[in-house]
Design brief:
The chain contains nine helices and 14 strands. It is of the alpha+beta class and 355 residues long. The chain has two domains: 70 residues, no CATH class; 242 residues, 3-Layer(aba) Sandwich (Beta-lactamase). A five-stranded antiparallel β-sheet has the order 5-4-14-13-12, with helices on both faces. The protein has a three-stranded antiparallel β-sheet with strand order 1-2-3, with no helix packed on it. Strands 6-9 form a two-stranded antiparallel sheet.
Length: 355
């Protein structure tokens, strides 16, 4: 409260002294003495015959010096020293400190793009071009299944395969006229990556394919993925693109759903159509036959392939200690290499964290 009062006193003294000054006037040669119009800080403007004249107060400097001398006599209050301001910074206890970032592993991944997403701290343990957009082929079906669950008409609801559902590419298991259930379509789409089953699954919701794709992209935006765009629910279009990072992050979300995780852990799915035809499909994910390895289990995964994407695979793993990761391979050069490279990524992470 004393400091504002001191400032107020200084300002009051300045204006008081200025008001007491006896001004002198300066006029331009040949001009009459000006009439004072205004004054501020000892200088006045005046209107004369030839325009605006300036008048200066002779004692201005003396007044300012006097005010400054008076200001020196004002006693300012002593500020209270903040407590413990001069103490050294204390470290947090070890269990409260942020974990140190692990050094990036030295590994040359022979694929276009790939990542290891560490689920413990939501960070990339390993990355090769993690944010480059890339066609994701049938990994698209993971997005399709996740969106479908919002519009599921019921697992036991019957559906007859229509001619418009038929999609080329890959092995064809379902044909026009086959009477199946929605659950059959869901499992054939995820287990065997059946394109016709995925198209029929979308039709079973009552939405057109165009409407369904819009729902998919809306959900992607809601989840905050900025580099993922889907053009069809099957994965045949080159316009289905994402990045290794966003595929990994989405797979972790999708596989948290028990309906999706159960389907992606199914090695073989069989059923009989209402016409009595037996249908069977084997998982396209060969890693289901390779795990568990030691104390590491696979929690699911999805394959993908079109010419533009190369061989792709996203998978999730967890050891007995609860350490979970998601691996992504985009653009491998062969069917077998996407599986062997995924195993190397798994070893890379768990061996590094057990040392």
């Amino acid at each position: 409260m004393l400091i504002p009062a001191a400032i107020s006193l200084i300002l009051s003294t300045i204006f008081l002294n200025l008001s007491l000054l006896v001004p002198g006037a300066i006029s331009l040669p040949g001009q009459p003495r000006p009439v004072k119009v205004g004054r501020i800080m000892g200088v006045s403007e005046a209107a004369g015959a030839a325009g605006v004249l300036v008048e200066q107060n002779d004692n201005l400097n003396q007044a300012v010096v006097k005010v400054l001398e008076q200001a020196k006599t004002i006693v300012l209050p002593q500020l209270k020293q903040l407590t413990r301001l001069n103490e050294p910074m204390r470290r947090l206890p070890p269990n409260q400190e942020a974990p140190a970032a692990m050094p990036a592993p030295d590994f040359d991944l022979p694929a276009a793009n790939g990542v290891i997403l560490d689920s413990q701290n939501d960070s990339l343990f390993f990355a090769k071009r993690p944010d480059r957009t890339w066609p994701i082929a049938s990994i698209t079906k993971l997005f399709t299944a996740y969106t479908f669950l919002d519009y599921n008409p019921g697992w036991d609801t019957g559906y007859e395969i229509a001619a418009s559902d038929r999609r080329e590419g890959g092995r064809i298991y379902l044909f026009t006229g086959d009477s199946v259930t929605v659950k059959d379509l869901f499992y054939f789409s995820l287990v065997g990556s059946d394109n016709t089953a995925a198209a029929a699954l979308v039709s079973s919701t009552g939405l057109s394919e165009e409407e369904f794709v819009k729902k998919m992209n809306d959900k992607i935006k809601q989840l905050g993925f900025k580099n993922t765009r889907l053009a069809d629910p099957v994965g045949l279009a080159d316009g289905n693109i994402s990045t290794a990072r966003e595929v990994a992050e989405f797979a972790r979300i999708a596989l948290a759903n028990p309906d999706i995780s159960r389907a992606l852990l199914t090695k073989q799915y069989e059923f009989t159509t209402r016409q009595g035809r037996k249908k069977a499909v084997t998982s396209t994910n060969e890693l289901l036959n390779s795990f568990p390895q030691g104390d590491i289990n696979i929690l699911g995964g999805k394959t993908g392939y079109v010419n533009s994407s190369g061989f792709c695979l996203v998978s999730q793993f967890q050891n007995q200690a609860g350490q979970s990761i998601v691996t992504v391979i985009l653009g491998a050069d062969s069917d077998s290499s996407r599986f062997s490279l995924t195993k190397k990524l798994v070893d890379l992470y768990y061996k590094s964290n057990n040392n």
